Amino acid sequence: MNKQDIYDYLKSKNIWYEITEHQAVFNMLELSKINIPYPEVDAKNLFIRDDKKRNYYLITVKGDKRVNLKDFKEKNNTRALSFASASDLMDIMGLIAGAVTPFGLLNDKELKVQFYIDKDFMKNSHIIGVHPNDNTATIWLKVEDLITLIKEHGNQVNIVEL
Fold first, then answer.
1. All domains of the chain, ordered by start, with CATH?
2. What is the pLDDT of residue 39?
3. CB-side neighbour CA atoms (13 Å) of 11
4. DSSP class of residue 94?
């Protein structure tokens, strides 16, 4: 799915969302320089793999949060972890580095990636901001709707404290 496919998919599911179009951003620092409507709920996404390249994980946290992979490994009983390669990202989720997003899971035909989302998104407004498989826009939607879409697709979803 590309950006327009994501918009059409959300519309077909009758899901509320807002779109903020912006210049391409490749990291949280670049995004922080753009005027966005809900900066406190913008997501940072990490595409991780284990040391045997057998298990892949998408970890989503609020943009200002850091993820300690050693802590994640211990809490979630995984093997040693590192960032997945750009080629794995493209092969599995059809995304380029800088455009990692939970919507990429909708391109994961083999359901290789387990999704881990931080519980912090379940507080207050329940809104999350993620790219629509393209880093020139951010979609704002209810986190519960995002989780439902990913579960319907078949990827394992874990709501955890990170």
1. 3-160 (3.90.960.10)
2. 84
3. 7
4. -
Q: Which residues of the chain have pLDDT under 70?
A: none
Instruction: Judge whether 31 and 25 are in contact, CB under 8 Å.
Output: yes
Q: Tell me the C-alpha distance between 117 and 115, whole Å.
A: 6
CA–CA dist 10, 40 (Å, integer): 23
**pLDDT value, residue 21:** 94
Edge-first strand listing for the sheet containing 43-50: 81-83, 43-50, 56-62, 113-118, 157-160
d(CA 28, CA 13): 29
Residue 24's closest CA among 83, 82, 96?
Answer: 96
d(CA 14, CA 134): 21
What number of residues does the chain have? 162
Tell the residue number behind the tokens 């802590």, with chain if given. Answer: 71
In this predicted structure, what is the pLDDT of residue 124? 79
Helix, strand, or coil (residue 82)? strand
Position 64 scores a pLDDT of 86
pLDDT at 63: 87
Q: What is the pTM of this model?
A: 0.94
User: What is the three-class DSSP state of 77?
Assistant: coil
